């Protein structure tokens, strides 16, 4: 083996450091990096098995073009890139810039994300570029912006080790962010009296380490936290000095909370939990000064996801528990670079450096920095609406990068129909055969993990390098390179001549510093504009190659700040955080006689997304080998299905078939199906086809956790 290279795991948002080395025999050695602050040498089983997923079987190694008869043929890069650039140009000339769109991924590196957003928003002139991160954390982004004035995660992983009370809301941390969970449990074992509360409708693996589990009815989180806000206020837990000096809006938020949830007995009834357990949680929260509330998809993936986020943040603002060690609301990201994408304007409503597309001053700043011919004039289409626009023929050319929406989006059969109807579908991917690539007119081979070079940002705002230790296979190219090649063919060459990822990173860092020196509509002092990488704007190639993990902001004055808001100054123009009134709202679709069960979806421990990589490891398949429908034995009896036998689960949007299992942790009236399996691994196994396409009105994040369904024996008896 050659010397090990320090890189970053490509799976979840924990962002663990990995030491990787490739041997002459083609094998790859993987160990946890003991010097990486996110994991201090730990890896979960997915990270440890990375070396088993890197073979070239199934890899897309050359550009492919679809012939008029439907067959794919190999093409050279010039022909494929010309086809993409010319087709995009023709569509724009005939139908305007909003007739093209991009759907990208939290798997992209920050440098890839930056150039594709620059191309779309600044040069083509459309904001129709959204990301699969819309599906996992956009409600947290929207909640942060409402409360803090910018999308800022206040805390860091060390807070979880310093807390006296950890509240895990809608997060199966043990399976979905395992190394964070390991750190938390290790701290609990060492620290006398540390308590963990899990708020989740299911009894998950995370609950095994909990001191209290509140199995709330899905969708009732806002009532639970409104009730907590009301309880904290009435029982003297308010930090009045903090609220007076640093916040606004308490009266309205309290009025909404009291109206909804002023009576704990009523909250317990609405949430479906024991009153005594609810009061235990409320009392523990009131009593423990050092409290962290960690949340993820169970909160975000909801038609009231943004309100859920703000209802949690409200409780931290009331108690002044933010910006201090061991305290804070903490949104954990699902993907390795969901956070990096946010930093460079990866969402359809954002611009780079945390600026907003709806703000004319921000648009002017970005356009003048890029010196670009256009800037998109309004926010673009968010993920679900973007595919609706494709189906309606408004978007005629779509470029999908590193994601598999035919499996992962809600109403996934509708996504299939949209791609069938689309004039031009371009897919950049590492894998040749996916459910989405089946609809591609152009397939472009991208570099994968171990081959790519750039940066990612973890859930705690830590920028960390992904470094290549494997050669580029076949004709595969870096995503940023492919995007720049197309940009040059579209006539934007001068501004897409990057020598490598370091040049792109430095331009991104310069833009964050540039923003802070421009007068802006928010009237905010520069120090309050939080994402600033000014000190990284002069990185040499050598510095970039050697970059050690660092949290932002990184300025000449501040290097690697662990916690934001330590001084009580927030990013709203008056420096104050906002309480947000969050009246409770039921999920969009209630179960009924036709669809009497509620479908919840999520991850299993050892698979990642649509299994294009983890599906290669037999070790990982050993944990859960096939898709399943987890349901309560009483419901199985009621609907005539048996454990171990196949059943068909269907909704108003679609159907799938899987084996029934009684995992033991699910409420009567509910079923759980994992998100990973798809038609490449099992037939009729895409749960996305069932999921309702309802989204949160603020964030656009879909309601993956609450779709009414029916279950019946398969084949139908
Ligand atoms: Fe990778 Fe997440 Fe596991 Fe860390 S916890 S090794 S980042 S999958």
Automatic annotation (TrEMBL):
Domain of life: Bacteria
Keyword Cell wall biogenesis/degradation part of the UniProt annotation: no
Tagged with keyword Metal-binding: yes
Cofactor(s) demanded: [4Fe-4S] cluster; Mo-bis(molybdopterin guanine dinucleotide)
Residue ranges of every copy of the 4Fe-4S Mo/W bis-MGD-type domain listed in the record: 2-58
Record keywords: 4Fe-4S, Iron, Iron-sulfur, Metal-binding, Molybdenum, Nitrate assimilation, Oxidoreductase
Family: Belongs to the prokaryotic molybdopterin-containing oxidoreductase family. NasA/NapA/NarB subfamily.
Protein name: Molybdopterin-dependent oxidoreductase
Organism: Dyella koreensis
């Amino acid at each position: 083996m050659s010397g090990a290279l320090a890189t970053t795991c490509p799976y979840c948002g924990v962002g663990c450091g990995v030491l990787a080395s490739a041997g002459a025999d083609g094998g790859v050695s993987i160990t946890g990096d003991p010097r990486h602050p996110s994991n201090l040498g730990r890896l979960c089983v997915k990270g440890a098995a990375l070396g088993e997923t890197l073979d070239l079987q199934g890899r897309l190694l050359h550009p492919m073009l679809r012939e008029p008869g439907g067959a794919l043929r190999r093409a050279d890069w010039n022909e494929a890139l010309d086809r993409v650039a010319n087709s995009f140009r023709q569509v724009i000339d005939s139908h305007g810039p909003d007739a093209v769109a991009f759907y990208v991924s939290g798997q992209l590196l920050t440098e890839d994300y930056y150039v594709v957003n620059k191309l779309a928003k600044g040069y083509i002139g459309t904001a129709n570029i959204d990301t699969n991160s819309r599906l996992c954390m956009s409600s947290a982004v929207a909640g942060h912006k409402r409360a803090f004035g910018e999308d800022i995660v206040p805390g860091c992983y060390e807070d979880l080790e310093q807390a006296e009370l950890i509240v895990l809301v809608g997060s199966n941390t043990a399976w979905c962010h395992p190394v964070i969970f390991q750190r938390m449990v290790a701290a609990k074992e060492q620290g006398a009296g540390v308590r963990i509360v899990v708020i989740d409708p299911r009894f998950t693996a995370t609950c095994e380490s909990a001191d209290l589990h509140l199995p709330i009815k899905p969708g009732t989180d806002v009532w639970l936290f409104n009730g907590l806000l009301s309880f904290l206020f009435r029982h003297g837990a308010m930090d009045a000095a903090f609220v007076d000096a640093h916040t606004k809006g308490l009266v309205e938020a309290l009025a909404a909370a009291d109206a909804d949830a002023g009576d704990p007995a009523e909250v317990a009834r609405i949430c479906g939990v024991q009153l005594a357990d609810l009061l235990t949680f409320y009392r523990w929260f009131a009593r423990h000064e050092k409290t962290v509330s960690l949340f993820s998809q169970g909160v975000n993936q909801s038609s009231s996801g943004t309100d859920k986020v703000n209802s949690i943040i409200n409780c931290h603002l009331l108690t002044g528990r933010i910006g201090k060690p061991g305290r804070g609301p903490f949104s954990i990201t699902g993907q390795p670079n969901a956070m990096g994408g946010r930093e460079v304007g990866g969402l359809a409503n954002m611009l780079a450096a945390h600026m907003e597309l709806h703000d004319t001053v921000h648009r002017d700043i970005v356009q003048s920095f890029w010196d670009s011919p256009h800037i998109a004039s309004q926010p673009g289409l968010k993920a679900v609406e973007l595919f609706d626009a494709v189906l309606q023929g408004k978007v005629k050319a779509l470029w999908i990068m590193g994601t598999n929406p035919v499996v992962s989006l809600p109403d996934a059969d509708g996504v299939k129909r949209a791609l069938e109807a689309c004039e031009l579908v371009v897919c950049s991917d590492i894998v040749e055969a996916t459910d989405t690539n089946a609809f591609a007119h152009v397939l472009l081979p991208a570099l994968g993990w171990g081959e790519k070079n750039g940066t990612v940002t973890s859930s705690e705002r830590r920028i960390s390098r992904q470094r290549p230790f494997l050669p580029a296979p076949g004709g595969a190219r870096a995503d940023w390179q492919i995007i720049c090649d197309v940009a040059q063919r579209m006539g934007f060459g001068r501004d897409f001549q990057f020598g490598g990822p370091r040049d792109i990173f430095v331009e991104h860092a310069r833009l964050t510093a540039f923003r802070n020196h421009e007068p802006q509509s928010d009237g905010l002092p520069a120090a309050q504009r939080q994402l600033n990488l000014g000190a990284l704007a002069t990185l040499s190639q050598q510095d970039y190659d050697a970059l050690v993990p660092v949290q932002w902001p990184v300025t000449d004055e501040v290097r690697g700040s662990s916690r934001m808001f330590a001084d009580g100054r927030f990013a709203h123009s008056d420096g104050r955080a906002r309480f947000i009134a969050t009246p409770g709202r039921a999920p969009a679709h209630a179960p009924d006689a036709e669809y009497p069960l509620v479908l919840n979806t999520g991850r299993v421990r050892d698979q990642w997304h649509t299994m294009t990589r983890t599906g290669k490891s037999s070790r990982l398949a050993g944990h859960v080998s096939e898709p399943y429908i987890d349901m309560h034995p009483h419901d199985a009896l009621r609907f005539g299905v048996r454990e171990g036998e196949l059943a068909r689960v269907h909704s108003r949007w679609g159907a799938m078939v899987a084996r029934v299992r009684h995992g033991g942790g699910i409420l009567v009236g509910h079923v759980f199906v994992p998100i990973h399996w798809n038609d490449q691994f099992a037939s009729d196994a895409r749960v996305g086809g069932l999921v309702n396409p309802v989204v949160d009105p603020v964030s656009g994040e879909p309601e993956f956790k609450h779709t009414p369904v029916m279950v019946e024996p398969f084949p139908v008896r």
